[in-house]
């Protein structure tokens, strides 16, 4: 078994058996009890907010990427649409309700947490403001900063998917 590919998973979570087979890299089957588990990608959302030529970034409070820049967003909960997840994250992290939001595009990401690496699909939304909204950093964010479109420091952005998203947005708008 390729330990790196299978993230060190060695025992069946149902029966504790050690005879796991991996028909594909994203699912295993227990040869003792027949249990099958799929390690599917997680759906996530992120929001680009633009106001008067500036983009809003959050400063991450926790690992991974503590102290680095992030877009407001996070994992979608079960039963939620991507739009609902984006609106909930904006409420939780910035304390705001958004009037209008537009889907832009998506990028894959890898999110290491607690010894596992979660593959995600980050769906990116856009909110444009005429006047700066009354944002207040909360939840996973230590702070928020507005950055001029031409002054974005891409190597300070925590995740590859979000670097690509901001680059693409700036090149197309
Ligand atoms: Zn089993």
UniProtKB/TrEMBL annotation:
Write one Gene Ontology MF term. Answer: metal ion binding
User: This protein's superkingdom?
Assistant: Bacteria
Query: Which cofactors does the annotated protein need, by name?
Result: Mg(2+)
Q: Which residues form the Nudix hydrolase domain?
A: 38-170
Gene3D superfamilies per the record?
Nucleoside Triphosphate Pyrophosphohydrolase
Q: Which PROSITE patterns match?
A: NUDIX, NUDIX_BOX
Gene Ontology BP annotations = NAD+ catabolic process; NADP+ catabolic process
Keywords of this entry? Hydrolase, Magnesium, Metal-binding
Instruction: Tell me where the transmembrane regions lie.
Output: none
Transport as UniProt keyword: no
| One cellular-component annotation, GO | cytosol
Q: Give the similarity note.
A: Belongs to the Nudix hydrolase family.
**Protein name as it appears in the record:** NUDIX hydrolase
Name its species: Pelobacter propionicus (strain DSM 2379 / NBRC 103807 / OttBd1)
């Amino acid at each position: 078994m390729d330990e790196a590919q299978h993230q060190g998973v060695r025992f069946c979570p149902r029966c504790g058996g050690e005879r796991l087979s991996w028909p594909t890299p994203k699912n295993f089957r227990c040869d003792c009890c027949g249990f099958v588990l799929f390690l599917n990608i997680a759906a996530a959302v992120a929001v680009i907010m633009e106001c008067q030529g500036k983009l809003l970034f959050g400063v991450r409070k926790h690992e991974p990427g503590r102290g680095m820049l992030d877009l407001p967003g996070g994992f979608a909960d079960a039963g939620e649409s991507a739009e609902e997840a984006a609106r909930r994250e904006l409420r939780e992290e910035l304390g705001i309700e958004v009037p209008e939001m537009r889907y832009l595009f998506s990028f894959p990401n890898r999110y290491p947490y607690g010894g596992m690496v979660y593959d995600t699909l980050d769906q990116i939304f856009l909110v444009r403001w005429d006047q700066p909204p009354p944002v207040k950093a909360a939840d996973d964010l230590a702070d928020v900063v507005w950055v001029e479109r031409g002054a974005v420091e891409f190597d300070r952005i925590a995740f590859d998917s979000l670097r690509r998203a901001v680059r693409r947005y700036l090149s197309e708008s």
